[in-house]
Each structure stands twice: as C-alpha cells, then as structure tokens.
Amino acid sequence: MGEKLKIKLSIADRVYPLTIDPKQEEGLRKAAKNIDFLAKKFEQNYAVRDKQDVLAMCALQFASRIEQSGIEESEQMQQAADRLGDLEALLAQALGSV
C-alpha cells in the first residue's frame, strides 16, 4: 500500500478534509471544481439559495450525464454488433460462392 495524502476540498463554500491515494488527487480536485462551477451556475440562473437544493441539482446533472453516456455507448455497441453481423454475412456469402 502506498502512502496516503491529506487534502482539503472546498465544495459549495464548505471545506472537506480527505485522506486519499495520491493518484486520486487530480480527479477529485477537478470534480470539486466542476461541482462548484455548476452550483454557482444554478444559483445565478435559478435564484436558488438553499445549498442542499443546489447540490441535489448538481448530483442529478452529473448522474444523468453518466447514465446518458451509458445509454449512448450501449446503442453504439449494438450498432457495431449489427455492422459486424452484416460483414460476417457478406464474408460467408463471398466465401460460399468461391
């Protein structure tokens, strides 16, 4: 096991001390920055003052992106499988006529 790193992340005007693996630091800092950016955007655009509501909307936004990405990836995999099936049929047909 490697050494742990102690960091402090600020999210929605609150500081969260964390003990993490050093390789996680960059991702966590970027995530915290993205949450803060989105939270400020929600506060400005929707005049929401309750931090819990703002953070819930941030969580919904990020979770929906992940889910939508998974749906799109699944659709792309199905399209690729269909294309491979078509190619396989063409190859079988071409090889059968030789």
From TrEMBL:
Name of the molecule in the record: Cell division protein ZapA
GO biological process: cell division
Pfam families referenced in this protein's UniProt entry, alphabetically: ZapA
Source lineage: Bacteria, Pseudomonadati, Bacteroidota, Flavobacteriia, Flavobacteriales
Keywords in alphabetical order: Cell cycle, Cell division
Organism, as annotated: Aureicoccus marinus
